[in-house]
UniProtKB/TrEMBL annotation:
It is a single-pass type II membrane protein. It holds the Pfam family Sulfotransfer_2. Its EC number is 2.8.2.-. It comes from Goodea atripinnis. Residues 25-40 have a biased composition (Polar residues). This is Carbohydrate sulfotransferase. Residues 1-40 are annotated as: Disordered.
Amino acid sequence: MGLQAAEANPVSPMQHPNVEENKQKAATVSQEQDTGSSQITKRQRKLLKTSHQITHSKNVSLTSPPGSALEESLSNLSSILKARKQVLKNMCAKYKSGISKSITPDHVKYIYVEEKYKVLYCEVPKSGCSNWKRTLIVLSGKASNPNNLKHEQVHYGGYLKTLNKFSQKEIMHRLQTYKKFMFVREPLDRVVSAYRDKFENPNDYYHNLFGKPIISKYRVAPSAEALKTGNGVTFKEFVQYLLDGHRPVGMDIHWEQMNKLCHPCLIDYDLIGKFENMDEESNFLLRMIRAPDSLKLPSFKDRNPKDVRTSKEITEKYFSQVSLMERQKVYDFYYMDYLMFNYSKPFNDLY
């Protein structure tokens, strides 16, 4: 059941379930309005096996190599980023060609605007979004050091405006003229990271809104204390909730599919970065937008800093707690993210 790393040729799954989105909305529900058909045909499965393969850059440094070595490093990374965009374009053509091309404020509600450097950043939680927001706040001139900004300031301080707050004309102008980027993460690593953050640590909001209904529906003979507090949701219970076509509470931005948050088939991002290669690709982006040379993306973990960062080994440990069928269905659930962002099949025993 070993995990496979990096970008690779996607392998089609056993199934791609049509999970009915729950009509009940929580405050954090995120819905896709332009999904198109999600059914995978036999012909499409065959095409996937010949999809372009990309590998990560190896130790690309944007500061240390002098002269031509630096140029070569930048050129190599630029080629990887360009190929990544081409894979996305191909997947969109195959699976999302029928979607409406109209962009509404709902499509851009997770895109943050930085006016000084003319940058648009689509937030993907658990993929470095807190540190990217810190960096955008510094770029805007509202802070001088990203390392000094606390988690609450970053997310609730009102420093950054989302694109949906603008008029339709202003939205389109920014989409057409500003640099647009997003960062993605291996989907199962991301969902395990979200579970650990929200359910294994004190969090009244998530334990009340999600924990209580999850325990109530999926736990056999729950205690009165568990029903009252929503504390102690197990990973298996979380997976049951995730796969349920009739969830007792809606989806959340932290485990929603990345393609549904940022709509990359509708919005042409200039750069799609990867969490797994954050140092190199964040530096590349900052140089691309001509940010000050001294500015670097922070790398610290500000929520539950004593927890070990979710790795492939940790992801494997959590998914050993669920059945093979459940692992398959979670992979199927995030299958479009695997295709669009060209991540390899996470476990060897999946279809």
